Amino acid sequence: MTNNQDNQYTAKQIQVLEGLEAVRKRPSMYIGNTSSRGLHHLLYEVVDNSIDEAMGGFCKNIEVTIHPDNSVTVSDDGRGIPVDIHEATGQPAVTIVLTKLHAGGKFGGGGYRVAGGLHGVGVSVVNALSERLEVEVSRDSRIFSQKFEKGKPVSDLKKFGKSTQTGTKITFKPDPEIFEDLNFSFDIISHWLREIAFLNAGVKVDLKDEREANKEVSYQYDGGLVEFVKYLNKNKDVLFKTPIYISGKKDDIEVEIALQYNDAYLENILSFANNINTEEGGSHLVGFKAAITRVVNDYARSSIVSNFKKFTLKDEEDNLSGSDVREGLTAVVSVKLMNPQFEGQTKTKLGNSEVRAAVSSIATESLNSFFNENPEITKKILAKSISALQAREAARKARNLIRQKNGLSLSGTLPGKLADCSEKDPHYREIFIVEGDSAGGSAKKGRDRKFQAIMPLRGKILNVEKSRLHKILDNNEIRNIITALGVNIGEDLDIEKLRYYKVIIMTDADVDGAHIKTLLLTFFFRYMKPLIERGNIYVAQPPLYKVEHNKNSYYFFNEQELNAKLKEMESNPKIQRYKGLGEMNPVQLWETTMNPENRILKRIELKDVIEAEEMFTVLMGNKVEPRKEFIYTHSLEVKELDI
């Protein structure tokens, strides 16, 4: 045993962090990380306090302003944070809220019946991680103000002026010592605020960006979730015009649901608890799914549909599965409860078991009433579900056939076109999905065989946005991708079986290449979304130009880089514009696009599921007009850039 003083562990090594020091010491424990995601989380926590006021019926207007120095102001017309003296501490309540962890009105003290946020941690964490913060409270006919720096008060709570209004205004600037990037994204914030407005019918939310002239948006939806579902389905052909709306309350749990079917083949269900997007679902989502599956199955056997036999189940033992019933379903499920139990700090899954029964009961009763009163809509839903059942049976047969031929798992035979690598650990393996046999041949010759695998594609894969699963599984190129990756697809996907931790799409830098890239990304988004969520999907960036000058070669990825370099060159260089990957020999392809030391890879990140859903629907869906409008708008943007 060593007596080295450095290895001793005594009371001297125990640190006691006072106040908000712990937050500044380990910020990621409180906001996830210190990248752009963590930066925006600060804003979400401040806005959540305003939304809590709205959920209590005390606030109707919320304003968010991004200032040129990347500070942000959030103001509302709620009750205003209390300013009276807190008996236990002798300090104003607003000071306690902003400087003490786990201090707030959300712990059953009567301040809020339901609330989101970090339950008393949020706004104090924002204060701790801000270079400066100022709070202004209007209440009790007066205006109060206090300033803070890095979580510590730099002024007392001051009283000035009179006010006939109530509300809270908080201005904060994130600390550059904590955050890697201080640039707030207008798009990210506006998408999130739109979602908040949908979930809180009648609340007006304004966003203004002072960094750019006239950049502001305003959201207010009196129709709430019904308008939310209409928005989600705006680029789809729906089976009935007005979404079904469900609301009710049971055991202090408020339930709101809106749903509508479209003619597509995939479901899109969003779930929320106290305005928090529960991306991983939870008990409220389970309760809704169980209810709609049970009700639709009951009606498929009931007398109400006896006059349209083709929409009933023929075999008494047949049952529509949950996926059958949810094909083409767009829904938003929102619950509000007093004591939500979220799994994990990020709150992506609701755990309250009692919520499942409440949602299931309210949804079942409402759906039964609606189906009884609207037999024509019932018929359309049943027709859609039974058609999905038939397609599921066809898909099952297709799966069995594939397994018999070449397998869908690691135990099966890998595709003959796949040039695999020798590395055994998936963490260090990568696969290039390459457009065309010619480029695939160059990639096979130029790669590092130890860790790089090559899968050439022949032509364009099927557009999965317009196809059911059995058709998708019948596509040879898609089957090869599924087999090579080893994870299966959809509900059968097992991400732990992924054979390569980098899945790299490599296509030509032209229109066809962009189309193939979009087709592949649509497939991954619809049927292998966990790979995108975990950061396994990448896009390679091959160069557009090669310039030879004074016996040296240079590669450029856009015209701006090329033109800047040409201005530096004295004599006339030789310029080559690559039309495709196949024009590069194996050495060039390795040097520019595949060598980890030189290449440029773009990782595909899913920052906004709703926006991604809309974009794939516009680009690859059945409706032509939204696609034409998108192409026309963006082609004009390109022309303006060229000018």
UniProtKB/TrEMBL annotation:
One of its GO terms (cellular component) is chromosome. Keywords: ATP-binding, Cytoplasm, DNA-binding, Isomerase, Magnesium, Metal-binding, Nucleotide-binding, Topoisomerase. GO terms for biological process: DNA topological change; DNA-templated DNA replication. It is found in: Cytoplasm. Its EC number is 5.6.2.2. It catalyses: ATP-dependent breakage, passage and rejoining of double-stranded DNA. Its main location: cytoplasm. It is an enzyme of class 5 (isomerase). The keyword Chaperone does not apply. Its cofactor is Mg(2+); Mn(2+); Ca(2+). Mg(2+) 2 binds at D508, D510. InterPro entries: DNA_gyrase_B_C, GyrB, HATPase_C_sf, HATPase_dom, Ribosomal_Su5_D2-typ_SF, Ribsml_uS5_D2-typ_fold_subgr, Topo_IIA, Topo_IIA-like_dom_sf. The record marks K460, N463 as: Interaction with DNA. The keyword Repeat does not apply. Heterotetramer, composed of two GyrA and two GyrB chains. In the heterotetramer, GyrA contains the active site tyrosine that forms a transient covalent intermediate with DNA, while GyrB binds cofactors and catalyzes ATP hydrolysis. Few gyrases are as efficient as E.coli at forming negative supercoils. Not all organisms have 2 type II topoisomerases; in organisms with a single type II topoisomerase this enzyme also has to decatenate newly replicated chromosomes. NCBIfam families: gyrB (TIGR01059), PRK05644.1 (NF004189), PRK14939.1 (NF011501). A type II topoisomerase that negatively supercoils closed circular double-stranded (ds) DNA in an ATP-dependent manner to modulate DNA topology and maintain chromosomes in an underwound state. Negative supercoiling favors strand separation, and DNA replication, transcription, recombination and repair, all of which involve strand separation. Also able to catalyze the interconversion of other topological isomers of dsDNA rings, including catenanes and knotted rings. Type II topoisomerases break and join 2 DNA strands simultaneously in an ATP-dependent manner. This is DNA gyrase subunit B. It comes from Candidatus Infernicultor aquiphilus. The gene is gyrB.
